[in-house]
Amino acid sequence: MFTEIDNYVAKCISLTENEKEYFHSLLNHQSVKKKTFLQQAGETCGFEAYIIKGCIKSYYIDENGSEVILHFAVENWWIGDIANFSGNKKSTLNLEALEDTELLVINIIDKEKLYEKVPKFERMFRLMIQRTHETMMNRLISTMAKPAEERYLEFISKYPSIPQRVPQHLIAAYLGISPEFLSKLKAKLTKKKS
Amino acid sequence: MFTEIDNYVAKCISLTENEKEYFHSLLNHQSVKKKTFLQQAGETCGFEAYIIKGCIKSYYIDENGSEVILHFAVENWWIGDIANFSGNKKSTLNLEALEDTELLVINIIDKEKLYEKVPKFERMFRLMIQRTHETMMNRLISTMAKPAEERYLEFISKYPSIPQRVPQHLIAAYLGISPEFLSKLKAKLTKKKS
Fold it and tell me: Which chain A residue lies closest to B140 (C-alpha atoms)?
């Protein structure tokens, strides 16, 4: 159960056996069935979760009821309310499983205990957030500055496995375009290649 | 010179006098005149900088030559290439002073030395990136999901001092609307109030 997360952690920091055991003791294994929620907007969910297997869609519902998709998180990603420092803030995001998903969940209070007892984890989570932040910054730049075709090509180059796992209309929503426009775009690109 | 940054750090971690001195020894004071650059896109600038006084505009130039503004950073903010782990990556962002600006700059190599010698700084920078990330995530949600009026109201409520310091056409660029549309929006809101 801990093989993947231990490998992930080992890329950032070295742990003793005792530290590893303590870390494991704070993680709760959770299974989320396809089409069910790990979190719904409006809930007070102070946690972060590491994805062992599966795919989680993180999204916001706008005032017209449309989904604004922030990301599709798959194996080896962390998901949750990174910005929820106290664990008391209500989240604005929905986290929904697109596949049967296995996670290791740590709540904010236990995470603080972990930092206190094994301060090395500050480094691991700092590096994790730096990466997440880089992704988010590039996403914002793409959304604001780049045409749909370039956004799509960036997306499939960065996340080559996602188009096989996620329905096309969700990829369109992620890119902020209609499914029809995405179909046209893909047809145009296929024609260009041939 | 170090009063502001010491207060900032003290909100996250406690330092001994020796640790504080070591931290100060890694910071370089830099003055950037209004309308000049701290960094230009394409440069290999591995640093982060704390703003003592002034205002820096962080932006990306799109393929039509238009500015896509990521943020206006003022006193007590950090600016730089947070995602530039190695210090070797070419930046895509321009950092330009909108006012005469005073900064304390630390380069990526010295920051790694700091983490090694005073690991507590992992916590400080983790907390800093969490906040920056939260801002960026909310910005992305606003950009993708909220109408211009709501985006403008959010902006002046979050950053009440910025409209007095930054020209209106730049605020329009930040919001992704034309200066004319921003004028109309402001007139409409003033009318609503009266």
Answer: A140
